[in-house]
Amino acid sequence: MEDFLAVGKSMNIKRAKKIIAEVQETINNWAYFSKKAKVDLVKSAAIKKTLLKVV
After folding, report:
1. Where are the chain's structural domains?
2. In whole angstroms, what is the distance from residue 42 CA to residue 54 CA?
3. How far apart are CA 26 and CA 39, in angstroms?
4. pLDDT value at position 25?
């Protein structure tokens, strides 16, 4: 997470920590969003494997 915060600071993003937390929350809920968007289950599982845990 420190890398993301450093980038946020260097780009003068004032709410970087909050934005990172919101993105992580969305990633954590990937199953919900992929189902809602009717993503194929096999593709959804493949995408989930590539998602990062930041926080």
Report:
1. 2-50
2. 24
3. 16
4. 94
The enclosing H or E element of 43 equals helix 41-50
∠ CA 16-27-13 to the nearest 5 degrees? 10
Stretch 4-26: mean pLDDT, rounded?
95
CA pair distance 49, 52, nearest whole angstrom: 8
pLDDT digits (tens, 9 = 90+) for 26-51: 999 999 999 999 999 999 999 999 99
Helix axes 16-28, 2-10, angle to 10 degrees: 140
Q: What is d(CA 24, CA 53) in angstroms, rounded to the nearest whole number?
A: 7
CA–CA gap between residue 37 and residue 30 (Å, rounded): 10
Instruction: Please state the length of the chain.
Output: 55
